[in-house]
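User: I'm curious what two different proteins look like when written out as structure tokens. Can you demonstrate?

Assistant: Sure. I'll show them one after the other, since each token string lines up with its own sequence. Here's the first protein:
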Amino acid sequence: MTSAVPTAPGPGPGQAVRPDRAVARPSRAGRLLAAAVRHRADLLVALLFALLAGWLSHGLWPAPGQRVLALNPADQTLYEWFLAVDSRAVLGDFGLLTDRLNAPDGVNLMANTTVIALGVLLAPVTLAFGAPVSFALLVAGNLAGTAVAWYLFLTRTLRTRRVAAALGAALCGFGPGMLSQSNAHLHMTAQWLVPVIVWLVLRLLRAADPAGRPDGPDRRRMASSAAGLAAAVTVQVFIGEEVLFLTALTLLVMAVAYGLADRELLRRALPGFAGGLLVAAGLAVLVLGYPLWHQFAGPQGVVDGMFSPYYFSADLTSWSTLSPLSVLGSDASSRLTTGPAEYNAFLGWPLLLVGIGCAVWLGRRPLVAACFAGGLVMAVLSLGPEVVVGGERTGVPGPYALLAGLPVVDGALPMRFALAVLPLAGTVLALAMDRALAERGRARRLVPLAVGAALLSAFPAPLPTADRPALPEFITAGHWRQCVRPGGVLVPVPAATPADPWPMRWGTAADAAFGMPEGFFIGPYGKDGSAVMGTYKRPTSALLADVAKRGVPPAIGDQQRRQAARDIEFWGASCVALTDDAPHAETLRRTLEQLFGPGARVADAWTWRF
């Protein structure tokens, strides 16, 4: 005799399953945990990149407001001011022409590298903790973010193994040029959208290729790729136009090389691919039309570049030289470039030789040919209009001479074309590593060994930092509000200049709540409205700057007093302020009293209200 296991009766006809009998779905936390376990290797790589970025920028922490990049503090002052101005967008106080500098004319934010998108993104951090904190986060975040983005591109799009992708992405994010540009050039290191743009271009190309599809090109995917590309390009314009220009030029060279290597693909996909690019460009222009017009033809706009391509060009010798900012580099090699923020071409001979060797070993694959062609063209263009070797001009014209003077092109420094070589070299190294790991024999051992040694030769050292001069209590405690009308103009003595922009830190600490005259920016104050750094000084500003420099009391009469009154009216100034830390402060105070009468003492500053 058998006994049956008792069971609960099931639902009868027309009866619904009771909720307590439904299969339980995992919670959101459970799904996140499962995703983390599934992608634990990717998360580990991202964590390693974040730790490396934190180590390289650790000199700015734990108190960014008390630390500064030692090699380029002036540009850091400028970018922190940009972040402060950008943050006001969340307060509803923002325009592409800002009146918070160069009063009363203002500054065209599109004509300057104002990283608007980054500033708005980190506005809550800037308003809560100050622009120096946002700046420090971006220095590290741009390095790690760029590396992570290239890692995802290499693993998801090119399907390379994780270890190969990690090594290639490390060069993309932490290569010599990237670390060098981290000395305050946030618009050049924020390259985490570049892999997205490249992915969207490739996605568009694949969708436009009708091979294997009975219905022809995948028009739905083409449309979504074009729309995504337009969105990515639009955001990148508000991060850094120079990076976008270098990306577009590199992709153009690579597209030609790839097409020549795979002419059948060129024949099949070119019509749809070109059409998709035109759609993307049209969508982007709908959004960018006014900002770009404002940049070139709007108030305080400029149409030309202000930097000489003959001066800002890469020395041919620098390509085989280790960067002074690498662990094995030497400060003596810094003579091969214009400054510590422009070690763009310093790959070093080990990385250069291994990269070329890997490209040759990989053979005539279209992607490798495109990367090699793109890298070679951008490297040659980086040499500028005249080739320089070991600091000496050779008189040999460089290919860049063919581009010099062209609209838009002259706004990009030739030496920065070298930055485009890093992701191309990183891609070639990743492909070589991936192939080596798939093979058996000597290649499996020799290629990883060579790639690892080459990357170690260029391993970066932490960015040098120094103590930041303290701000006056007049600013930090908010005493400036006693003499500046809301949204008014405060005149620091001496005024900020491109060479000495330190008074701009006053505006940064106050979240750009007041305006200032003159300052550090790009504006149309050159001959015939050409672009120059800063503006001309008003007579009173020039007089006070001379006193601050030499400490010699000037002769003050009725003429100087009348001119001072006119300058105050021109600036629309609410207040003139002289703090105790100003150079030759006592001589300046006596000069100001002769110009404006007795001042009022507020905290550690003398003030004159108008």
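Here's a second, unrelated protein for contrast:
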Amino acid sequence: MSDYRYPYQDGIFVLNELIGLEQICHQAGLDDVADGLAEAILDEATKMGSEQLAPLNRVGDSTGATLKDGQVHETPGFSDAYRHFCEGGWPSLGADPEFGGQGLPAALAVAVNEVWQSANLAWSLCPLLTQGAIESISAHGSDQLKQQYLPKLISGEWTGTMNLTESDAGTDLAALKTRAVRDGDHYRITGQKIFITWGDHQMTDNVVHLVLARLPDAPAGVKGISLFLVPKFLLDENGNTTDQRNDAYAVSLEHKLGIHGSPTCVMSFGDNDGAIGYLIGEENKGLACMFTMMNDARQGVGLQGLAISERAYQQALTYAKERIQGTLRDGSRISIIKHPDVRRMLMQMKSCTQAMRALTYVAKAESDQHAAETDPAVKAKRKARVDLYTPIVKGWITELSQEITYLAVQVHGGMGFIEETGVAQHYRDARILTIYEGTTGIQALDLIGRKTLADGGEALSALIAEINSDMSEITDPKLQSVVTSMQESLSNAISAQQWILDKAAKDANVAGAVSVHFMMLLGYLCGGWLMAKSANRALSLQAEEGADQEFLESKIVCARFYAEQMLPRTVSSLNAIYSGDESTMALSEDQF
């Protein structure tokens, strides 16, 4: 197994040269971060990720979590790593200073999160879900709930979970059966939830569950769902954890294909007197509250797709350099990185991870710009762009991660199929990413329905116009092939959008039949856009004294490879859109 280190040069390049972290920091009044603190933060995160979390990744895969006497026990070593994580102040990085957070830009926080997720994906799910809980409570919780729960969630003293799914109600949340009954200033929750990530553990003295449930007099469907905060241990009048256990327990652990170090729990609420819960937001408005948490988590899962791809790429690269196989005409033995097809696979992995990184960071930077904006009209456009990015980040990147981790196994040849090399773990771990927090199909339907059809394509047209404008500014002949490929892909995106706007109004099946093709087309387009911008910036930087010519040239080469090898996929996506609605719906159920 190879070691892991955060790709510092590329990360800093995206932060500084592509999204303008310095300007974002100045807008937020964070001048010290703009003056080099960001680099120091990433350097320290890299140390913790490579030295403490990465060595535990294989341990989590082979050992995993266990359930004993009604309590989940995490992988050995995870608790110590979490303690160091909290001592370093990492949980509070991007959180609100009013409740103990450091208030740093989300764009910097997402770069730091990439470190944790690449180093140890299963472990990183715990702070990821906590961040989502913080977002939801911050946006919708009462002042009392904020004061009681946010400081310790932000410090990492407590962790958070998201409880949506039930055995009879997967994506169909309208069918959930968990019930909530009013009981004075709180509610009694009864029901069972499945697939609850880090639903229980011993790393902290409390776990804060966010639970969707239905009141007895609630309207039918999703309009009758409420959101409740249900702590593992109840609090005293001073907001401190007591030894009074709430009626909320993990009753079993799922046996999974991957992420074995992350305990995926079946949670039972109210088997005795009913779990005590506190309303977040308004009654029957819980889905909107939960979407705050879900959208944060969806971008986080997209980041996981990048993170596991980067980890797989690093391992494949190390193996390709070390594995001796084949001879030259003079009889000398060579490493497999000299084989053209191995280089093709490595180039695809390298260029795609760079495109994925650029998109995840740019999408999160849009959240910073939205938060800082004061003009209502511009702020609304920023919000629309954030919403548009979210399903693309989650859907396209996690789908692409399946291919990148597959290539990592392929580079290893037969040894990739052997668990001891460790690369198979990345392939297995990545498989969940297209499923949890909304499957690829759900992301694609969200993109085509809520983010395209709902506004007549306004937000998407604005993005396409920006991409087109950026391409018109790239004039160096060295990037002509990149611009040409991007212009063709832009044309494909415009054609796809117009076809969908025209057809969906006449046929209800169109959106569902072609949505994934549409999402993948836009993903490849966004990746190409940001790779082209990066290459153009790299060309400019090459003229500066002391520039790292080798790194900058690799940015240009990767952009050309991506444009020539990956952007043509927008053509096949467009063709699939043109025919997808008819061929998808052509067979009867009995013909399948």
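A detail about the second structure: The chain has a mean pLDDT of 95.
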